[in-house]
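Why do we care about 3D structure at all? Because function follows from shape, and shape follows, mostly, from sequence. That is the central idea of this module. The next example makes it concrete: a single protein chain, its amino acid sequence, and then its structure expressed as tokens.
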Amino acid sequence: MATPAMEFKIDEALMLLTGRLRATSARELIVKAPLTPIDLRSAAVLTAETIPEGIPFIFARHPSREQRRKLLKQPETSASRQAVLKPVHVPYDTDVQPPTPLSAERRRILASKFKENMPEGFPGTVVLESPFCENNLPALKASISIQAIDGEDSDPTENLIAIPMLYDTGAQATVISEELLSPQFQEFLRTTNEVHEPYRTSRLVQVSAHICFTNTVITLYVIAVVRPKETMPNRFNGVILGQKGAIDSLVTEMVPRNFLPHLSGEFWGEIRITRAYDGILEEIKEYQ
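And the structure:
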């Protein structure tokens, strides 16, 4: 019986080969090329002869950008919404209240530090894609209070209790799905007031959060980007904890369920917090 085969355009095949080489030590090899002109086939053979034998490889066609977009636009169901995450095991009630919001002065300090650490042009367009087969992203529970960055202490806040928070997705900054915010609070943030300029231009808000780790609840203050659910992984309706000012300020121990046989399959595992850096007070807090 003939071996099944797929057809690839030559440039597509070369891109797959290049990607595989970059993932191995073979990327450091040197091709000794002649100084005189040669034909393209000879150049390809010369390059191929430099690659050592024994590196496993399979031709596999990845979904196109258009195919990924179609996946993201599939109708949302309870199953697809839950497929993107697994809860982190927490042995206590996670229905906690949000922390007391920062004062206007401390919010300005937080915003200043955020701007110092983010690259020019951020946030730009944020599109986060995750295949529907992904079912192993750890999710914490968090209760948060959302405010305008440059607002006053008397301005409205939006409180959300025990909402899902994806952890360690590689997101550069913390992201909140727009659909979590009430229409009234969204309208407040859009009002033509200089105070709300960070939201109207960059969709930035200030978040005060109580985050439920396996061993304890911590308080975290962070600047977040508000984005439509359509641009979240699998149209996830919740919060994604980002690197800047959040995960890069935490020391955690992540223990997958494979190392915790007493946990049921519904859980990702446990995430224990040991230390957290307070960027406003510039001090480190220890946790047991």
